[in-house]
Every structure is written in C-alpha cells, then in structure tokens.
Amino acid sequence: MNTNITTEPVGKRDRLIRAARRSYYQLGAAQSTLKVIAQEAGVPLGNVYYYFPTKDDLALAVVTDTESCLTAALQSFEVNPDPRERITAYLDACAGQAELAVQYGCPVVTLSLDLHKIGSPVAALAAECVRVYQGWLERQLQALPVEDPAVLAEELFAGIQGAYAVSSATRDPDTFARQLTRLRERVRNLPAPEPELVEG
C-alpha cells in the first residue's frame, strides 16, 4: 500500500521529510544520514539543520508524516459501504506495491522496527502507526457479525505481515501475491454486515 498519496509540489521541509521516509524505508534508519537525505531531497545540507536541528527531529517528522499519510490512505477505502470490500480494497492496494514489498517489506512496520533497533526516542510513536494500521482493520470487522473482531483483526494483520516478511526474505513476489489472494478469500467469506450497517 502506498502511504504517500500527495502529489502536489512541496517545499524544502516537505521534500526532506519525503526523502527521509524513502531513505528510512530503502536503506534503514541507521544508514539514512542527513547528508544522504539532503542529496535525495535536492536540498543543501546546511538547510537540513535549519528545519531539523537533530536527526531525532527529522525522525519525529517522518513518523508524524507516515501516520498522517497512512490515516489518509486508510480513509480512502471508506467509500466502500461494505467493510469486507474496504479490507479487500486495502489488500488490492498492498498487492499493487508488490515490488517494493519484496525489496523492503511493509513501510509502516519497517519504520517501527528500524527506529527500535537504533534506540530512537521516537520509536514508541512509530509503534503507534502500527496500531493505527491494525486498529483500522479491527474497526472494519466490528461492523461485521463476527465472533471476536479484535482477534480476527490481529490474525489478518499477522497474515499480511507474514506475507511481507516471507516474500521479502525469499525475494519472491509470487509468495506475496498468493498470500494476499488467500487473505482476500478469507475476507470475502466473512458474513455480510447487517443491512442497516451497509446503508449507514
């Protein structure tokens, strides 16, 4: 799933944040030096310190932007009246990012893992992004007549992350596609929502 949905021209600060997000995702937080990020953003290194005096300040901006873009991306699936279709649309979006998934894994979870590895003071905030992600799944399932939405959401989330992890470890996009197909079928076979919930 692409969590960076904005395409409008941006200023130096936003370019730095987006470059940092790409660098964290593709190189890892430890290897994402301010120099590398400045070059990626096309911004002089001295300007980085103007906007972000420390690397932790930039990491905080990355986490904040990630959560904002993630929330907007998830909300875009709310146009579907059936929660099962919302989750299916989300899985379709993940499938559309298969190449990146195989190379780098899930962008949201990878960010949290990397920041925890380096002991970043904003690692706990990155973990909140993961909870936003899983919480969205749980809210969709709460609108369905299923026995335990929280447990099912956790299982689906684990299945999605398993698909990311295994396909990334094996560099096999077919694994990613197969696992997402199985998850789609599981979601489609869930009981339909009550009519009033669909209409609402």
From TrEMBL:
Keywords: DNA-binding, Plasmid, Transcription, Transcription regulation. It holds the Pfam family TetR_N. Coiled coil: none annotated. Residues 10-70 form the HTH tetR-type domain. The keyword Cytoplasm does not apply. Residues 33-52 bind DNA. One of its GO terms (molecular function) is DNA binding. This is Transcriptional regulator. It comes from Deinococcus peraridilitoris (strain DSM 19664 / LMG 22246 / CIP 109416 / KR-200).
